Write the structure tokens for this entry.
Amino acid sequence: MSTANLSRRTVVKAGAAAAVAAPALAACGPSAGGDGGGKTLIRFLYATGDATWNEVVAAVTEAFNAQSDTVVVEPEPLPSGADYATSLKTVDATGNWPALVDMRDTLTYMEAGKIAPIPESVTALLSDEVYSPAEDGSVYIVPSTALNGEIGFNIVYDKDYFEANGLAVPTTYAEFIALMDAIKANGDVPLAMAAAEIWPSDQIWKPLAAPTFAEYSEGGGFWNAVESGEATIADLRDPMERLKTVTDTYALEGWQSTQDAQTSTLLVNGQAIMATSSAGLGRLNDIAKVDPEFNAGLFVIPADDGTLHVLKNSVNGDTASGIAISKQAQEDGKQYDAAVEFLEYYYSVAACDLMEATGVVSPNIKAAAEVTRNSSIPGAADYFGLLENPKLAWYENEPTNPNHSTFQTFFRQSRIEMMDDQITIDELIEKSQGEFEKNMAEG
């Protein structure tokens, strides 16, 4: 065991686990849409993830409620173990739509008439490139944070350990493997991962598969190519093999039952030297809360030639994510007006300052020059540096079939089964191809 990491293994800050646990933000008070002292009450359904995002939602809604004379917004988090796409289907099946939704599968719900157009009073506050009208000319989704693509899918690491052991951030995939070999040779565990919920499995998979996905970027993306017969899931064999190698050789045991939020504590406590993440600046902020003295850094897993392939954000289509207003709120009238009032505040300089101070990169608003950026989080320079890295290459991979999210839930679970030796790579490919064809036909 390296001496550089010994103190972090022996001195565990009290309450570390609590610092990364999602705060209880359950809706309270009268039911949304009712009369709370003359104010319209609306719900904001959102996906819990890293602790920082939970705190951002709590802080922004609390600040909005304090300054609004007409509206109260109640944050309604989904449990961290819930699959968000499946949970949205449950919301739809019960007909219990909130006014504001942290939306996934946007195209599916737009075409089903479940979300309402967002007015110009909101979109006028945003930079023009971060939203776009659908085919009917209306805007249905607006960003919840900065649209920096999936640059948040990265590896966070202990900079002090790297320095003490003469290690460097890898510039090729071969160097990434050599780095993990060097950490193992020290008697330490290279990588903490999480799969207690199925979606964090993307945190290691997407960077490994990105070079293959990027090959199909100009033709509409890999998944559309599979649907048209120009590619098959067997074309993902190489990243699948790399995923299996990383899991079997370098991952901290117990990843199958590890929650995403736990990886920050595992890193800080020295149980692993690196950890997977999809939270970008938010994960660095989580780490700083567990241990303000921890010297964190981050990097994107590079391709064989050193390229950093990062998926671009979609502002339309089923892969677009952000905030939407439900059709149910529009039909109510008062709830729609209340949701619009909240979004107008959400894209104000005051709200963006609050988001930045809390630990996320705020949405791209027209008044961005007036926003106070937060560069105090350890490792923040690494995050912003990635956006300027000459090796950064954006790619697109936007499925057009509305049933793709159903397949992705299946695909994640099947990958975990392969990683856990329940099925082979050949079996993963065969069952995934069959499920893909079935889901696409239904879609």
User: Anything to note?
Assistant: The chain has a mean pLDDT of 89. The CA atoms of residues 120 and 264 lie 40 Å apart. The first strand starts at residue 35 and ends at 36.
